[in-house]
Specification:
The chain is built from 16 helices and eleven strands. By secondary structure, the protein is of the alpha/beta class. An eleven-stranded mixed β-sheet has the order 1-3-2-4-6-5-10-11-9-7-8, with helices on both faces. A hairpin with a 5-residue loop joins strand 10 and strand 11. The radius of gyration is 21 Å and the shape is globular.
């Protein structure tokens, strides 16, 4: 199966037609997505038309761009002009955005071909893609198990070979955790380095868009396309993106790598997952890095702080779904009843749970005790990471405490589900980049992901570490 860079090189040179590449991937989707359910919507006709336009540009002697003819899946919380965008929720029924998200524009301008809108936990709230109004997504490695979440459809699409690249969003681990469970590469960039314009908000101070790919180099290629300043996003960094693809092969000789004690020894980390992190550290040491243990004490409070901050922001962001402006409307005798009925019918149980948590945390008399205190913990986490990065260039931990778990195993226990993100949440709170790299297998032969973290805007260092890990991974790393 060709990776994104190979496909783009072949299409740009005229060796392969983009239309043929797209037809091959649409055939795979038709053959298996009935079982996997990675997509809420397959854009077969649109993909063919886009591919034909790419081929026409090649024939005319133009360069369609670095992603020429590469099929890509788009998480269904990214706005697509005139194409339904649902957030896997009934409340956005029938809504077609009047514009494209900035990242959608950027991948299109680079020649990529969108093949579908990928399933997710409703409004990106979940760690298993079981909370979707369109049914769960299944893990291509073992369809009896979850693919992770909330970007489970995006991860599964890449793992199943439906597209070599996909885009997801990561609020507390929603790119990295499904990447780990599906055995692919997933990247959460530095907060503000990739525009959020056109990403339907969950928690605005945490959300970040990033790539899934079958290899570290393909993920680097996609990140270099989507990153960079955007005047449409007020939180976008004004700094130019430093390309990561050119530095991939610089190795790790002399880099200082820290294994985060609190995350390696976090609650619920399976022995095989811990062993994979230590094996990854040994591989980096063998490649010339200096490896040591490091303590980042306040990360143990990350989960608690996150589940106050994120629901608080969600309760504010989701207030706009009122049955008046767009999407679902359930009529009532008056405005308040219509609004309540619409939200009751339109939102699923997990979204309702988080709205109530967040509204409570923001309510008069509780704001300082809950939301205010969580923000103070967030500051402590930022400080502790800053101290660690004063000594180390990059940090290592598990991505997910476990391999992919069976459907229903945690559905009735929200706290057990929330613990799936115990290793990924701290970097969202800090705004730092982090990525998951497949590194061997754990229980039942299922993929394990090792998380590589770096300081803000240090993606080049992070990717150098990831590239070495991929080369050293048991069985050759990414599938």
């Amino acid at each position: 199966m060709s990776g994104a860079r190979q496909i783009a090189a072949d299409v740009r040179s005229g060796a392969v037609r983009a239309r043929d590449v797209v037809e091959e991937h649409l055939e795979r989707i038709a053959a298996r997505d009935g079982e996997i359910n990675a997509f809420n919507l397959v854009l077969a006709d649109e993909a063919r038309a886009t591919a034909d336009a790419v081929d026409a540009r090649v024939a005319a002697g133009d360069d369609p761009g670095p992603l020429a003819g590469v099929p890509i899946a788009l998480k269904d919380n990214l706005c697509t002009h005139g194409i339904p965008t649902t957030c896997s929720s009934r409340i956005l029924e029938g809504w077609r955005p009047p514009y494209d998200a900035t990242v959608v524009q950027r991948v299109a301008a680079a020649g990529a071909v969108a093949v579908g809108k990928a399933n997710l936990d409703e409004f990106a709230m979940g760690s298993s893609t079981e909370n979707s109004a369109f049914g769960p997504t299944r893990n291509p490695r073992d369809p009896s198990r979850v693919p992770g979440g909330s970007s489970g459809g995006s991860a599964a699409a890449v793992a199943a070979g439906f597209a070599p690249l996909s885009l997801g969003s990561d609020t507390g681990g929603s790119i990295r955790q499904p990447a780990a469970l599906c055995g692919v590469v997933g990247v959460k960039p530095t907060y503000g380095s990739v525009s959020r314009s056109g990403l339907i908000a969950f928690a605005s101070s945490l959300d970040q868009i990033g790539p899934f790919a079958t290899s570290v180099a393909d993920a680097a290629l996609l990140l270099d396309v989507i990153a960079g300043p955007d005047p449409l996003d007020s939180t976008s960094s004004p700094e130019a993106h430093v390309p990561v693809l050119p530095v991939l092969d610089q190795g790790v000789a002399g880099l200082r790598i820290g294994i985060v004690d609190e995350l390696v020894d976090a609650e619920g980390v399976e022995p095989e997952v811990r062993a994979a992190v230590l094996a990854a550290a040994a591989a980096l040491e063998a490649a010339g890095a200096v490896v040591d243990r490091v303590s980042v004490p306040s990360v143990v409070y990350g989960l608690s702080a996150y589940y106050l901050i994120a629901p608080a922001e969600a309760s504010s962001n989701l207030a706009r779904y009122d049955g008046v402006r767009y999407g679902l409307r359930v009529d009532g005798p008056d405005l308040a009843t219509m609004n309540a009925r619409t939200r009751d019918a339109g939102f699923g149980p997990e979204v309702k749970r988080r709205i109530m948590l967040g509204t409570y945390a923001l309510s008069a008399g509780y704001y300082d005790a809950y939301y205010g205190k969580a923000q103070k913990v967030r500051t402590l986490i930022v400080r502790d990471f800053a101290r660690a990065y004063g000594t180390f260039d990059a940090l290592l931990s598990p991505t997910s405490p476990t391999v992919a778990f069976p459907f229903g195993a945690k559905a009735d226990n929200p706290l057990a589900m929330y613990l799936s993100d115990v290793c990924t949440i701290p970097t969202n709170l800090a705004g730092h980049p982090a990525m998951s790299v497949p590194f061997g297998t754990g229980a039942d032969g299922l993929p394990v992901g090792v998380q590589v973290m770096a300081d803000a805007v240090q993606e080049p260092v992070m990717f150098r570490v990831a590239q070495v890990l991929e080369a050293a991974a048991p069985g050759g790393g990414a599938a």
